[in-house]
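Researcher: Re-running this chain for the archive, since the previous output was lost when a drive failed. Same request as before.
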Amino acid sequence: MTPESGAAPTQRAGIDPRGPRFSAAITSVLLLAVVVLAVGGLGVAALVLLALLAALFAWGAIAGVARHPFGLLCRALVRPRLAPPAELEDPRPPTFAQLVGLVVTGIGVVLGLVGIGVAVPIAAAAAFFAAFLNAAFGYCLGCQLYLLLVRARVIRTA
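Model: Regenerated structure tokens:
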């Protein structure tokens, strides 16, 4: 409780905004590898790697970006070497972006499993585009979609 208001502060826990960018950098490299493998004739390896990435997106969407393996890696290895962030970011938009990544890569995996092999590099390329935008420019397409859906009142916030 704060003495001025008599109420408990309602500060929401945030995440370091550099964490999702770090994760997006690793993800974009792996998605580019999927595209190269698929175009290079190694469709099974591409499908397996895309399925692994879909599982990682599911992990981020369910557990949240703070508990994602790449986020934990960033927190353990990168963040201690950097100055504290100027401000923290709401984890809900990047978590929603993980769900969008899961949908895109999941569709590629399912279509690849039913024999539509061209879906694997297409899904990987689409996800790569979004991950690269986040890693290189800090522009998160999934986060922007989240904000659009909040404004349209499709997603309700507390």
